[in-house]
Structure formats: structure tokens, C-alpha cells
């Protein structure tokens, strides 16, 4: 599937980029990508099902995990139709309205995942540093309020720059850098005044993703300081083991974002394949790995899944 000349593309239509140079291999590439999306959807649905049906998992830690799984599930659903549509040869085009909607969900869900990871860090901080007040601090009402705040922060604050995309004039070539739409990618094609969007997006990244990562780092610094005061080495290891899954989830989320940001900022000379690869890692790696991490590292979920499959067999 080749990119068509700009003259054949309307002002409200964009071309998504698949894997440049590998168009003849799309039928084969669609197999692993389809499997990945099936794993993303089934893995996160399984985690949600286990948490919903197992009364012993009705605790703050697992409520936050359910939020994370739901966010990852939505991220997979928001990009599957464009990524797989290209590989299956269905369509490489996307309309402006659909592109803006996908941009809204991709960026909103990324911000939401960052907020959930911060809430999970607060959960681990409270459980380890102040265990006697854990249940009184993280009540069901407070967890619901935290979830509402994360949801509101994630989607309300990005509405203004996303809506402005609708009124931009796109006079440059209408070929996007990825198999899905991103705010910075659409700005690159706009000929209108994009200063508000650029500055707002930068401020939003600083106030959400960067601030969340700093607060997560501070929480783990305090956790380590608290753990080191424990006399028993066995108790130290037991406390730290409760943080392993969350630490892996934080790394799985932030490393691809940093990599994609570096590629967009400093990798203009790199092959388009690098941009496409980093974009797909950013979209698919966290939703794919989080259910695996928590199914392996969290004993309660692992035991429940094992019992469930044993009953099925």
C-alpha cells in the first residue's frame, strides 16, 4: 500500500503511515499485531474480571489496578481500528474529525494512566509508611474521588487544544507519522498559528506527566527510607516485594513515552520506520505488559487465575 500524491487527498483527510518499505509483508505483519491486540483486550478483561469476582481483592490496591486495566483496555480499543486497518489493507485514510477524536482519547488515556500510576504510588506509600491508617485514609469514597479527579484532569484539560485542531488549516502534505493520530503530528502539518497549542501542550506535559513522575519518585524515596528503618531483613524484602509490580508498570509506561518524545524532538533525520516503531511501542507496550506483570507478580491475582483455569479444565 503506497502513499498517494497530495493532490488526491482532500483537506479533511489524512494518510496514516504503516511500516514504510514493508507494504508487501502487511498480511504477515498483521498476524503478530492481531495477536498483540487480542492479548491486550483479553489480558485486561481478565484482570478486571478477577478483581470483580474475587471478594478478597476488593481492596484499594486492586481498585487502582482495575482503573489501570480499564485505561489500558480503552487505549487498545482506541487504536486497534487504524493500526489493524492498515495492516489488513482496509484503509489508510482517516478523516479530520475521526483523527481529532482519536487524538483526544490517546492523549487523555495516557494522562489518565499516569494519574493512576501516581495514585498507586500513594497507595503503596500509605500501606508501607503508615499501615495503621491505611484503611482510614483510602476509604471507598476517597478512592472514588481520586478516580473522578484523575478522569477530569485527564480529559477536561486537553479539550481546549484538541478542539482547536478542528479549525486549523492543513496546507502541508497530509501524511501522518504513525498508524494513529497524535496532537504533535497534526501540529506539524498545520499552517495556522499553533503557538497556543504548542505552549499549552508543553505546560500540560509538565503539570501532568512530569509532575506525576516526580511525585512517584518522591514517594518511592520515602518508601525506601521507611523500609530501611525496619530491623528485620525478611520484613524489608516483604515490604519491597509489594512495590515490584507497580515499579515495573511505571517503567513500562514512562520509558516508551520518553523514547517517543526523544524521537519526535531529536530524530527528524532518523528513518520513518523508527518513528512508526516507537509509536507502536508507546501505544501497545504498556497495555500488553501490565496484565502480564500483575498476573505474575501479584500472588492474589495469580492464585485466582490458576484456580479459575483449573476449574475450567
Automatic annotation (TrEMBL):
<keyword id="KW-0716">Sensory transduction</keyword>
<feature type="transmembrane region" description="Helical">
    <location>
        <begin position="273"/>
        <end position="294"/>
    </location>
</feature>
<feature type="transmembrane region" description="Helical">
    <location>
        <begin position="199"/>
        <end position="223"/>
    </location>
</feature>
<feature type="transmembrane region" description="Helical">
    <location>
        <begin position="143"/>
        <end position="163"/>
    </location>
</feature>
<keyword id="KW-0297">G-protein coupled receptor</keyword>
<comment type="similarity">
    <text>Belongs to the G-protein coupled receptor 1 family.</text>
</comment>
<comment type="function">
    <text>Putative odorant or sperm cell receptor.</text>
</comment>
<keyword id="KW-0472">Membrane</keyword>
<feature type="transmembrane region" description="Helical">
    <location>
        <begin position="100"/>
        <end position="122"/>
    </location>
</feature>
<keyword id="KW-0675">Receptor</keyword>
<dbReference type="InterPro" id="IPR000276">
    <property type="entry name" value="GPCR_Rhodpsn"/>
</dbReference>
<dbReference type="InterPro" id="IPR017452">
    <property type="entry name" value="GPCR_Rhodpsn_7TM"/>
</dbReference>
<keyword id="KW-0812">Transmembrane</keyword>
<dbReference type="Pfam" id="PF13853">
    <property type="entry name" value="7tm_4"/>
</dbReference>
<feature type="transmembrane region" description="Helical">
    <location>
        <begin position="28"/>
        <end position="51"/>
    </location>
</feature>
<keyword id="KW-1133">Transmembrane helix</keyword>
<protein>
    <recommendedName>
        <fullName>Olfactory receptor</fullName>
    </recommendedName>
</protein>
<keyword id="KW-0807">Transducer</keyword>
<feature type="transmembrane region" description="Helical">
    <location>
        <begin position="63"/>
        <end position="88"/>
    </location>
</feature>
<dbReference type="InterPro" id="IPR000725">
    <property type="entry name" value="Olfact_rcpt"/>
</dbReference>
<feature type="transmembrane region" description="Helical">
    <location>
        <begin position="244"/>
        <end position="267"/>
    </location>
</feature>
<keyword id="KW-0552">Olfaction</keyword>
<dbReference type="InterPro" id="IPR050402">
    <property type="entry name" value="OR51/52/56-like"/>
</dbReference>
<feature type="domain" description="G-protein coupled receptors family 1 profile">
    <location>
        <begin position="43"/>
        <end position="294"/>
    </location>
</feature>
<keyword id="KW-1003">Cell membrane</keyword>
